[in-house]
Each structure stands twice: as structure tokens, then as C-alpha cells.
Amino acid sequence: MKPKRRLSRSAENLKKMVARYFTEMHAGAAQGKLVTWIAIIVPIELLKGFDLVIAVPENHAAMCAARGAGSSLAEKAEERGYSTDICSYARIDLGAWMEGGKGSPSMGMPKPGLMISNNNNCSLLVKWFDVYRRELGVPHFVLDVPFCYEEQAEKDTQYIVDQYGELIGLIEEMTGQKHDMDRTIEAISYSNEANRLWKEFMDFASHRPAGITAFDSFVHMAPYITSFRGTPELVDHCRLLAEETAELVAARDFPVPNERYRLLWDNIAPWHQLRSMSSRLAGMDANVIYATYTNAIGVREGSVDRFVCDESDPLRSLALIQNGSVCPSGLELRLKAMAEMIERFGINGVVFSGNRSCKPYSVMQLDLMREIEKKTGVPTVMIEVDHADQRKYSEEKEFLKLAAFLEGIDA
Amino acid sequence: MSESQPGNSRPLIGCFPLYPPLELFHSMGMDPRVLWGLEETIDGTDLSDLHVQAFSCAVARRLMQFALGPLSSDMAAVFSYNACDTLRNLPEPLQKGMDSRGRSLEYFRMHLPAKDLCAAYASNYLKNEITGLISSLEKFMGRAFSITDFRASVEVYRRYRSLISEAQELVADGRMAFDQLGGMSLYEASTSIEGLTATLGQRIVAARKNPADHSGIPILISGISAARPFLTPLFQEAGLVVAANDVAGLRRANAYTPAEFDSAEEYYLDFYKNHFPCPTLAGLADKRAEAILGLARQSKARGFVFIGEKFCEYEYLEYPYIEKRLTDAGLKCLFIELSIDDEGAGPIHTRVEAFAELLKKQT
User: Fold this and answer.
1) Which of A297, A345, B32, B110 could lock B81 by a disulfide, CB 3.0 to 4.6 Å apart?
2) Which residues touch B133 (CB under 8 Å, ≥6 apart)?
3) Which among A196, A197, A191 has a CA at the least distance from the CA of A224?
4) Across-strand partners of A266?
5) Burial of B225 (C-beta count, 10 Å sphere; 0-12/13-18/19+)
6) Is B110's Cβ below 8 Å from some Cβ in A?
């Protein structure tokens, strides 16, 4: 008998949201709205002050990878001269575009009229979007966010705010629309509430056994990185997620009932392995209960607690969260946040996923491993998983490491 | 790291990535060395492997190996600014490595705007970064910044850059071997700017005596660390001459020195705004293809050899476009990839020869 699906109502809602995101994207483009491709961390709340179609290439690539189309689309880009050493998100997205959307579960994304990248998660993204800029001849706005080794400095906050002003001016000029700050504030308000509920959901990791797996959070973060951010629909989804998880915990329905290993995951989700990795780990009584990746929603750099944006100072608030997504922050900040996660959620092992497609997340992990062990005494392991290119992952090899690691925790 | 230069008591500052404000460090009484490439200096990556994964580029791995090893024992400080994602992440692992070896260094950082520096807020941001850096250097060195000293240091680098320019012409003229130039890159961590300038000057004097030789097929080479000595004989044997280069440590680093300025802040605004394009300088992205095409036209190059550094996603994401533009302009292109784990002349030799044959058939 097929096992009952956990979080079934949330999963059903998510499915509808993702379908709606892509459908509305294509419909909006057909209506002649300005299609704006953005990097994940570009503040959508700011863009909600306009009537735009928002599309997120990283999300599109992750979705292709999760549905098994990643490698074949990446090959299309490789055939056109893009090295296999380039980030797999970029190769997948470029491949889908070169094929006119063929092979993509969403039939790709409509042609952009504007692209907004940022270099906080990775500066490679700027180069990736530049490929489209040259090919399509559309403007590409780069949001330059200084990397922070310590808490974001005031000079950097102001620098980001200045760029928001420039971006607003550019979109006003392109669309003839006047930016509506009230709508941006409203979007920030929805994001604040969605973040609160997201944290409520994530906090079920502290239950023993944990009420969630990080894999649940990987799946359900999807609407955050689409045009649903800053909307009541996202608030409703996060509420449903938190409520349904609470019901399952109350009913003592846990993802890994015999949980012995409470693991923390560090890196982007292994999109092509979500189900198989979580199932196989569960079979070993191991649960990846929390992830730095999905902790990053609604927090500032180096923190586990959510950051509440000040609706009376919207642009500054949106600038302050630009370094929150792990990659734009340094080792000491990452260490601080991870140590807090380990303590708060009773983590007894950390899985570092070395990800050749994401240098900004991965380079410094070897030092982080040592620092985590020194600071917390919790053991760590490094496995290698490309976030979207299945060809660069060897399940048996990595599970050998994981099995040995779990034995080490027992010892 | 130090050279045997009498009276050289200036504190050494290792800098990365490609285009740090060297003149400023020099004017503050320091001896700046760019930690880049280091192919001829570093053998093995055992120290680096403790901090940097094998899927990082050779530049990062060699840099870390060099910094943590005995060759940098007299390095007093490290400076870094943002360019690619890998190098952006290195300062703290480097510091951890130094700390674990009981080495105490001073660390300086700067953010170079990845924006068009014509925008007032971006240019002001850069100028403020330079002001902040000056202030940190003053504290470290215990001396005040002097515009007179800065101007003098600019002239030191201007002199070096003009020699590089002349040497590039001599190479194109067949009077100087390309490896004579490659070894003179600013990225020779073992040599001060004064040492580089003196050696380069001597080589130029010698090369001027050689007769011009235009028998080779002119090519343009490009890459972030493409001036490897082992490539020169391969090109020579195949009948190719490096008529121009878009090599990070050569043309890109040395093509431009601002002429007039009232302050270090103005100097660096001009320096970065008008720098020769490089994939790491985001604000100049639009100018890169044209700059390379201009070099090809000027040098009458018939072939383009791109020497890629494995895992350098920056160059690799731009290469298909650059290749298309050059192909459209009638140039044949050859892509060679170098990897720290698999570097040797053997397979490359065959490809260079085949490429040369292709160019000869065009004649």
C-alpha cells in the first residue's frame, strides 16, 4: 500500500500555487505586462509597487532539477559551449531557454523585458543574466550588495537603498507607472506575517522526534522564491503549513518516528534527491531536521531569529535583509547562526554538502566544519552533492560516508 | 617571498584578486605583492586542501598554499577585495589557517562596486572605500598618507606599465619571446615592483637588439593566468607568435594608469572606471568584446587562443559570446583548459599544432 503522504493539504496547496505562478506568468506576458526576471534575493516587495510579471530563473532551474529535467537541459547549454564547470542552475536555465522552453516542465519562462540580478548570493548570477542581456538586448540591472564579514555596515545599507532608488526610477521610466510605496509596504506586511508563520513551521524541528524534515522546508520554500512573496496567498500557505504540522505533531505523526540522528544540512537543497535521500536517511533513523538554507528566509546575517521589517522605513528594511541568505555573509556569521541552530534544535550531527555548483556556499565549509566541532563538540561530515546536476552525484559513495558518520555519532 | 634587495624593510602585503590599489600600499611604505597565479612558485596543494575544496580554481588553491607556506613567512598583511565568489570567501579561511599556525597578520578589505562607476552613488561609495582603506593603513603603518608619496608611487607603476607595453610590442615584433614577458607579470609574488621593473628593463634592452621576425602567424591569447612559460615553446614550434594578449596579469592589469588626479580617491575612481575590461570588473562587462576585437584588429591576429582556468565560471560564462564575436570577425578560436590536477604540455601540444595547421591553410 502506498504510504500516506505527510503534509498532504499543504502539498496540494503548493502544487496549485506553483501551477498558478507559471500560468499567470505566461498569461501576464501575453497581456503585455513587463516581464521581469529577478534573482531570488531581489526584494520582490519593492517590485510589488508596480504591476509586473515576475519570473525567477533560479527557481525555474531548481524546479526543472526536482522534476528530473535538470541534466538533460544542462546538456543543451553544454552543447552550445557552456562548460560543465558552470553552476548547474545557470546551465539548466540557459538550456531551457535555448530550447525555447522545450524540456522544461513549465515550458520555460516568457521573454523578459527587464532583468534584475544581485551579487549577494553569487556574483556569477550577474554573468548568467548578462548572457540573456546580450542575446535579447534587454536591460539588466545589477543590485550590488557588499559581502559582509560582520553585520551589514551602515554605509552598505545606504548604498543598497541608493540602488533601490535607481531601480525604481528605471522601472518607472520603462513602464510609465509610478511606484506605489503603499503597495510595497503592504507586501512587506504580508512578508512579515509569512515569515512569522514560516518560523513557526520550522520551529517544529525542536520537537523530539522532530515534527518536520528539512526536506519539507526545501519543498515548501518554493512560493517564497516566486511572485507569491509579499502576498496574502503566501501567508495562507505558511499558516496551512504550520497548522498542518501542529496537527501531525499532536497526533504523534512524525517523519522519522524512531529518530536517533538529528542532523543539520548546510547548503542548497539537493533538488534531484529530495525523496530518495530523505527516505534512505529515514531508513537509517536519521532525520535532517533543519537546514541553513531554509533558515535564511526572513532573517538577517548570522541569525536564526526572524527579522521584522519596519514598515515605516521600507527601503531601509529591505536593504537590511540583503545579506541574510547565507552566501553573502562570512564565516564567523555563519558559525554564529549554525551554533545557535545546533543548540536550539538539539542537533547531533552536521552534514556539509560540498556543492561544486555553488562556490559561495561551499568555499569556507572546510573551516566551518572544524570551527563547528571546536565550538559545539558536534561531529560533522562533508558529502558532495551538486544541487541540480544529478550526473555529478554518486549516491552510493556519499551514503557510505553518511553511514560511517552516523556510526561515529553512536560511538 | 622576499627578494634579496638591500635595504628593503617595507612590510610585505599580499593582495588579491587581480587589480588591487597597489600604488596606495606602495606609497604608505609597504611592498605590495599580488597573490595570483603562482604556477611557477607552488608545487602541491597539501596546505590549501585543508581549507579549499578541489572544485575550486587553481588560483584560489595556489594562493592559499602560498600564503600558508614558508614562502610567505615575511608577509605582514593581506588585502582583498570582491571579484569572484570563490575569492570573496577566502579571507576568513586564510585567516583561520594563519591563526592555526600562530601567524598574526593584519587584514584589509575593500568592496569594489560592481556597478557603472558613472553613477554618483557608486563613485562616492568607491571613494569612501579608498578613504577608509587609507585610514586603516595609516593606523597600521603609523604614518600619514601623503599625496606627494602617492604621486611618486604612481610614477613607479606607470614606468613599469610602460615597459610592459613596450615589451608586448617587442613580442609582437618577434624580437622577444613571450615567456620573457610572462615571467614579468605583476603577479610575481617573489619580486617587488622595483625588482620587476629593473629586470624587465634589462630584458627590453636586450630584445631591442634582436632583429624583427614576422614569419610567425599572429595570434591573440587570453585568460586569467595564460602566461604560462611552457606555452611559449608550443606556440613557437607551431609557428605562432603572440601578437597581442588579453592576459589578466599583463594587458588587463597594465593597460591603463590615470594621468591626472588630485587625490588617491580620484585616482582609483579613474583607474577602475577606465580599466581594461575583465570578467571580474562587472561595470565594464559591455566593453570586453569590443576591447578584444580591437586588440585583434590592431595586432592583425588571425587566431584567438583562450586559455581557460578550470572552474573559472566567470570567464567560462563569457567565452561562448566572445568566441562568437571573434568568429564572426573571421578569427579562428582555440579553447585550451588548464587544470591544477592535470597540467602538462602533451595534449595541448597536439591541439596547438592542429590549430596552427588550420591557420596556415587559411593563408
Assistant:
1) B110
2) B21, B24, B108, B110
3) A191
4) A352
5) buried
6) no
Distance separating alpha carbons of residues A363 and B51, to the nearest angstrom:
8
Question: SS3 for B32?
Answer: strand
Q: Which of B38, B37, B94 is nearest to B64 (CA)?
A: B94
CB pair distance less than 8 Å for A124 and B119:
no
C-alpha cell at B35: 597573490
CB contact under 8 A, A126 and B282: yes
B266-275 burial string, b = 16+ CB within 10 Å, else e?
ebbbbbbbeb
Residue A404 CA to chain centroid, in angstroms?
A: 29
If you measure CA to CA, which chain B residue comes closest to A382?
Answer: B53
User: How close does chain A come to B11, measured CA to CA in Å?
Assistant: 25
- For B138-160, the pLDDT digits (tens) are 999 999 999 999 999 999 999 99
Q: Which among B90, B115, B121 is the nearest to A363, CB-wise?
A: B90
Nearest CA in chain A to B86: A359
ipTM of the complex: 0.94
Which chain A residue has its CA at the smallest distance from B278's CA? A127
**What single string gives the DSSP state of each residue in A275-331?**
HHHHHHHHHTTEEEEEEHHHHTTTB-TT-SSB----TTSHHHHHHHTTT-SSTTB-H
* Chain A residues lying within 8 Å of B311, measured CB to CB: 85, 356, 359
Mean pLDDT by 10 residues, chain A (411 residues): 74 96 95 96 97 95 92 96 96 95 92 96 93 95 96 97 98 98 98 98 98 97 94 98 98 96 96 94 98 96 97 97 94 98 98 96 97 98 95 96 96 78
Please indicate if any CB of chain A lies within 8 Å of the CB of B114: yes
CA-CA distance, A335 to A162, in Å (whole number)? 30
pTM: 0.95
